[in-house]
Design goal:
Length: about 280
């Protein structure tokens, strides 16, 4: 039987790109969707999909029929690991899954406050062969969560001070994840993934102004105004607090680590911020 790989977070940043990479390698992928009828058009044509919801354990069984490997994305809104993620890991353990690639977070192994730490620990304890993908901050946050301020006000509205971040393109993360799930030698390993340089948001605004050919400014709002604006936009309090925590980490220079893992694994340079901005230009007009 063909080896099937279940990709969770299939409509999201890394899930969708991971699906494309796995398909390019001619592997059999199943996209796990919360709302298959609504979202099947978001994934590539001719790909299998299945209903899957961390909040509905009754969807697990059907989702992993014939599946040997899983790409696991923790949805940002689900912070209660014990309640929402652990039951799925327990289930995968019982089903004797061969490999679990978990999208974690750079530094997660030393940060007991993030859900990724608990998930990593729990996966290790489960005994399921794993690959931890630990990326830095996604470039694509600029084209999704923060695109409205850039589009409407030509402003990067992020409370990160002068701190630098080693931004990574999710397409690089997906390449590594698909490699880890398709080649030998990646079980029980953890990969810290970053772009090739760390930039502060003043530098990002400068590069963005050049690529978009219009003045983009970085406003470095206070935490209070950031909270208020995000709340008014309908984001959940927990999600805003996580964003604030992440940007505070960056403000204190803790997000600037640069690794050469992409270069080692993919044998090429990471995607540059200039290329990302060119490729996603339409998001800011
Ligand atoms: N953003 C960053 O810079 C960054 C950096 C490092 C690590 N991370 C980590 O990466 C992970 C993903 O974050 P992201 O911002 O890139 O999100 P994302 O993957 O773009 O979106 C979340 C995905 O999870 C799915 N989902 C939501 N609730 C679900 C549920 N109950 N059951 C099954 N699937 C569900 C969503 O599907 P629907 O379409 O149905 O909502 C969507 O596909 C998070 O754990 C985050 O901490 C993020």
């Amino acid at each position: 039987m063909l080896e099937k790989i279940l990709v969770t977070g299939a409509t999201g940043n890394t899930g969708l790109e991971t699906i494309k990479c796995l398909m390019n390698k001619n592997l059999t992928v199943i996209a796990a969707l919360r709302n298959p009828e609504k979202d099947k058009n978001l994934i590539p044509d001719n790909i299998q999909f299945v209903e899957f919801d961390f909040e509905k354990p009754e969807t697990f069984k059907n989702a992993i029929i014939g599946v040997k490997k899983v790409y696991l994305v923790r949805p940002p809104a689900l912070s209660d690991v014990k309640r929402y993620i652990k039951p799925f890991i327990d289930f995968l353990k019982n089903e004797k899954i061969e490999q679990l690639a978990f999208l974690s977070l750079i530094g997660a192994e030393n940060n007991h406050f993030v859900p990724h730490y608990k998930i990593e620990q729990y996966i290790i304890e489960s005994g399921i062969p794993y690959t931890f993908i630990r990326p830095s901050f996604f470039m694509q946050n600029l084209s999704t969560t923060h695109s409205q301020d850039i589009k409407e006000n030509s402003e990067i509205f992020i409370p990160a001070g002068k701190g630098k971040t080693s931004f990574i393109d999710v397409r690089d993360i997906a390449e590594v994840s698909s490699l880890a799930l398709s080649e030998l030698g990646h079980k029980n390993k953890a990969y810290e993934l970053t772009g090739s340089q760390a930039l502060d948001y003043y530098q990002v605004a400068e590069i963005m102004s050049r690529v978009l050919d219009r003045k983009i400014t970085y406003s470095d709002p206070s935490l209070f105004s950031f909270f208020q604006k995000m709340k008014a936009r309908g984001y959940q309090t927990n999600f805003i607090l996580v964003m604030i925590a992440i940007y505070t980490i960056a403000r204190f220079g803790k997000a600037e680590t640069v690794t050469d893992t992409i270069k080692i694994l993919l044998k090429r340079e990471p995607i540059s911020i200039e290329k990302f901005l060119e490729d996603y230009k339409s998001c800011w007009f």
